[in-house]
Amino acid sequence: MPRSDKPARAVAPWVRTRLRTAPWAAASLALLVLVTGYLAAALPRAVDRYETEGLRHDIRAAAPRSSVLELTYPIPVEERGAKLTTAVLQKKRDDVRAQFSAPLRTDPDQTVYGVRTVKRVIGTDPWLPRPDGLPPEFVLSSPSDLTEHSTLRTGRPAAGTAAAPEAVVTAKTAEAMHLKPGSVVHVPSKLSPEPIAVTVTGIVEPRSPESPYWAVEQLLRTPALAVMVGNEVKYYWQAALLLSPESAPAVLATTGDPEVFFRYMPEAGHLSGRDTDQLAAALDSANGGPDLVKMRRAVIGNATLTTQLDAIVDSYRSMREAINPVVAVAVFGIGAVAAVVLAMTGGLFVARRDSELSLIRSRGASLTGIGLRLLGETTAVVLPAAALALVLAVTTVRPPGGGTGEIPLAPSVLATALVALLAILVLPVRAVVAHRRPRLHGGRDDLLTARPSRRRTVLELTLLVLAVGAVASLRLRGTGDSGDHLVSAAPVLVSLIAAMVLVRIYPLPLRWLGRPARRLRGAVGPLALARAGRASSSGTLPLLALVLALSTAAFGGSVLAGVADARDRAALLATGADARIGSPIEWSPLPAGLTESVRGLKGVRDVTPVQIEYGISLPSEQRTAALPMSAPIVGVDPASYTRLADRTGFGPFPAGLLASTGRGGEGAIADTERVLPAIASPAVADRLGRAPQDIVSAAGVFRVKVVAVRSSTPALDDADFLLVNSADLTHRADTSLLVTGSVDGAALRAAVKAKSDSLAVKLRSEERTLYVDSPLQSGAERIYLGAIGAGAALAVVAVLLSLLQSAPERNTLLARLRTMGLTRKQSRRLLGLEALPQAVLAALGGMLVGWATVPLLAPGIDLFRLALATAPGFAPLDSAPLRADPWSLLLPALAVVVLTGLAAVGQAWWAGRRGSIKELRAGDAR
Description:
Layout: H1 14-21, H2 23-61, H3 64-67, E1 69-74, H4 86-97, E2 112-117, E3 121-122, E4 137-141, E5 150-155, E6 166-170, H5 171-177, E7 184-187, E8 196-206, H6 212-215, E9 224-229, E10 233-243, E11 258-264, H7 276-288, H8 290-299, E12 304-306, H9 309-352, H10 354-362, H11 367-396, H12 410-434, H13 454-477, H14 485-488, H15 490-505, H16 507-517, H17 524-533, H18 540-575, E13 579-582, H19 594-599, E14 604-617, E15 630-636, H20 638-648, E16 675-680, H21 682-688, E17 693-697, E18 700-709, E19 722-725, E20 736-741, H22 745-755, E21 760-763, H23 764-769, H24 775-805, H25 807-819, H26 824-857, H27 864-867, H28 886-913
Parallel strand pairs: 4-10, 6-8, 15-19, 16-18
Antiparallel strand pairs: 1-11, 1-12, 2-11, 3-4, 5-8, 6-10, 7-8, 9-10, 13-20, 13-21, 14-15, 14-20, 16-19, 17-18
Helix pairs in contact: 1-11, 2-9, 2-11, 2-12, 2-24, 4-8, 7-8, 7-9, 9-12, 9-18, 9-24, 11-12, 13-15, 15-18, 15-26, 16-17, 17-26, 18-24, 18-26, 18-28, 24-28, 25-28, 26-28
């Protein structure tokens, strides 16, 4: 029988044999890849989800009058009633709606069209209410589908014709304007001297008063008192008459400049964060581009589209661009930690199989053959785990509810593939590098004797240059450029450089401690230090992982602490204390006895009454050459107000600066030359100068002299102010109360309401919640919390991997030392002391890096948009700087040290319970 040249098939395939030999190692690698791959795959989906939620939230939460798309065009003179019928307007409505470009969609159920008067027309009937002798003004409007959005209370629905128009009014309009079914309202006509008579046939009640149908133009629902400012202030009514579609052509004869309107409410359920640019482009086209031209053709008129939806989209986009670079810092940090931990896993497997691979190599195995077989092992374990991680991420992180669309799969697939590729390659690459040259048995490879190679030095210098460039760029430009990933990686690069420095200086403290340790009684201390110094030089990876994890946790904690601090300060500056009581109407004195009632409530520690008068004209030392300027003046009780300023940190000052002159009250009306000491904001102080200046206010006429300057004060969140002693004012009347303490809001409001219904209560806790109203903010905070948690978990894995890598050697050492009389207690002390130097060094390094990174990068990172929902200039604070959080620095570092010590002690306890036969066999590894 001829002999075949094909090699014989292996009886035991390599991959299957290895996986059966070490199932726990394969399961551990699969679990690590599963968790890491899940985090990598879930991250882009989570970011996409909260960005989508943020865009939908901003559009849905906006006031209808801001988000509505309203198309209007004036009615040409030649256009008469035949072109204003319901059928014609419905066709134009549908034609216009079809012209909006994707992804801009509108809700057909909320679409309203009709005819109205742009200019309000006067009601000439003498029986109409006239508060100050001025006749009321009416808007004549014929909104579509009125019967579907209202309920008829009395009368009948309006019908009528252009010659005899009929209308209905809402219940609030009927009450304010004294209307009832059968009332006839006359408005001027531009076609004849005879006025147009509009008959009111019924009174309706809006079914959903807050719906866009009624909320866009609130005058249709609720009349309003308008102000006419002239020589004196006069008030007059404004209201609406809701015409029937058949009566709509009657507006052509009025003096109210009639127009046709179409209102479209945007839909947000189909939008995603990725549609922002296309949505902005569609709005630009509808506002003044090709889409507007198509709409004008559809309505056959010179139409104009008005909306503030583009401003809403721009605000969302600016917030996203401000938040994303800050989130990228956390992503880079946790990604770097995960990469190092995966590399440590490969190092553990290489160390455990070093003798096996050396034997195979010595018997003629090629590096290519070894690498391919190890590649097959890791591929068989990693690929299923990575695929399962991707499936779990897609299953658990779903698109936001209440809408359509899917989250793109490509970013998650790419992230999972990177994790899988790193996990697959780390073992064969490290094995090939370790066995590329024959090695002498028993050669030392520890941190004390290892000498950095030239390649390592070049790598460290390269990272140093990158870190310096990234930090300099971040400090100069900030995080505004979301495409510059080098800037986002600045904290990671700083941590890498610090870890490499720690590795280089690691032998020094061991040598310093080794000398005094020799003088100690017993061999445990010197032996532990010697063992720590003889740790493998590959132990730099655990140190690097711990420093990265600790610095990432410290930076993330500092970001969250800075966000919380900014919200606390903004809320405190907005209220001035834990609670604020005052009237929304300026110069409204508080009722008598209110201060005592509030002071007696449970939880109230202090009450500070203040008297605030706004709009005080300020004189200038430049006299007539200066531009007009006004600022509020605040009368305070120096004793209680200084306590409040000290607690809040807003402009504290000694109470003696506002010492009373002893000349105040009603008896000082004629004493206009008295000089009151005052504390002013910087702009007011520059305005008034050093000399006394005259102040004319409702609180009195006097002179003030600036004795101190403060940039803020609890009573006001305005930039400018002037503080004086309230006892020196002529007319004393407190207008606000600033309450300190953990008072119950319901009890406080009940006490205030018992004194007056016109006072408002503002709580600092409630004010703080107003600054977190976007899923963008809460989503970014969850990412940071997840990064901190993942970093902590990976730090634990790094500690365990570090101990597992040297576990066989430690077990052998303990077994041999027990034959020489080492007790179990000494065994635990030995392993604990041996593991602590590297853990303490990593903890100190992580704390120092985290502490140094915050002030180093703080000038380039502003947390304002992440902390506060409003844009700068619309919140009490103008910035939210990054600040170091002591707890984020200290707690993770202590946890690493404690965990390392407990793990080492646990290893010693477990080794003591096992037999030492295996470890004492001759020929085993030393």
